[in-house]
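Closing statement on the adenosine monophosphate sub-project.
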Amino acid sequence: MKFTTFADRLDEIEAESGDLETIQQVAALLAAADAELPVVARFVQGRVFPAWSTSTLDIGPSLCYTAIARAAGPNVSTDDIESQLADRGEIGAVAESYEFGDQQGLAAFGSGGTTGLTITEVDDELRALAATDGAGSQDQKIDRLFGLFRQCSPLEARYLARLVLGEMRIGVGEGAVRDAISEAFDQPPEAVSRALQVTNDYGEVAAVARDEGQAGLDSLDLELGRPVQSMLAQAGTAADALDSWGEAAAEIKFDGARVQIHVEEGEEPDGIGMVSIYSRNMDDVTAALPDIVDFVERTVTDPCIIDGEVVAVDDTGDPLPFQHVLRRFRRKHDIEQMRDEVELRLDAFDCLRVGSQSLLTKTLGERHRHLVNVLGDSDAVADLLLSDNPDELAAFEADALEAGHEGIMLKNPQSTYSPGDRGQNWLKRKPDVETVDLVVTGAEWGEGRRASFLGTFLLSVREPETDSYRTIGKVATGITDEKLAELTDLLEPEIQSESGQTVDIHPSVVFEVGYEEIQPSPTYSSGYALRFPRFITVRTDKSPADAETVERIERLAESQ
Ligand code: AMP
């Protein structure tokens, strides 16, 4: 498929407002693809690599602007791109506004501006770009991206720019692609959903749906070394749990960072191979956690996938607040030194696979028994209290808080493991103030002695259907000067445009924010505002995809 054909289809899809029509158009696009089907299925939602893959393009806004400016000709600077961005509001429209180098030459030969780029060539080139590393890799990336842009027609440039920045914004969310795969290849939606849950790869699932049908989809399953999304929890109480299930499984809610540990098969004597650790966003964090790797290698007896939390502990083994884990979690430098400073422990609470057997469809109780088996008698297995007695659950919660934990989890003992699902089967119970995770999409420079710091932060929630963000409030309270400096360092590279004191920020950083109440509000585009918002921490373990959605805010507002 020519990239220009693909861009034409995206343009039509973007112009379509009806959900069903959008799904049909995406289905037609998938059905029209040949060997490049996996690439089409990923590109259409702004992805080059499947969500589980550790490969990334690592192209920030400024690198992309440099490549566009260079392709646009000697009279265009990155400053021009940024000021255009302030006017036009998004990078696709900016990229589209230029005639790129090779286009003028081609048009002169009467080719009418069509280019020869195929979607596969774009994919190959972006993968080659992603693979560059070491000294000079930034320049190589700019060269390669420039090489692509200069072959693009304006419409192709619109979608290339959005693709490389991961912001396709054509109103096609994950649900639409899932439904389009089902429709294009006439497969049951549940079979497609399940296959996506276990692979996290829309490209692979589309190709299997087309080439192997339902039997192929059903045969896709968990694989060691390919992380899946973590099962998530809703807020709830012991009374909710007992009302719904009669009996609840209670565990401590550990205040750490979620990990999914994959232990591969290896040589005798112990039969254990490589250990990989993934964050809840499926990033590979193995290198930062050598002590947890050592522990797993010493303890685990079978190839398996374990779900749990790593928690920082003090000298006596008592849990320390979440901020301490973050000093270790994504660290790339001084790992050994930090290992001495911050001690971590693993608290494991689930087992998704053991040997070659997937446990996703087993009940919590059965999975827990497997967990105990693979971790032997180590104390890393979280205690699980099975009870139908509200007093017993209340006492369990009181003990957990007394011991310094942030609350408890209540789980349906009969439930299966549903990756990525924030459903009714796991409830979290925290007595503290309510908090929400929000994406920073703007800020204001401070005044006086704070003039060189970003001060007030504009916060947004996600609108998954249209893959966009809606504002919900501003936060300026709860932030020390030292923290402001840190936040400025973190957010300044993400600034997309500035006007006076106000800056637009590329959605990439997630703040945990405390609040007293959610109120309807005409001021913000979500339709809601937070009463007394207070900055708690940067959730470096979360990406904008994990932030609250408009729908969740509506539900929280209703349940107050
Ligand atoms: P929150 O981050 O506030 O949405 O709470 C959900 C998170 O609590 C999960 O994603 C886990 O990282 C964490 N967690 C802590 N203890 C447990 C547990 N026993 N079971 C499941 N999740 C837990």
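The pocket of adenosine monophosphate is lined by residues 230, 232-233, 251-254, 258, 280, 309, 349, 382, 409, 428 (CB under 6 Å). With this model delivered, the sub-project is considered complete and its resources will be redirected to Aim 3.
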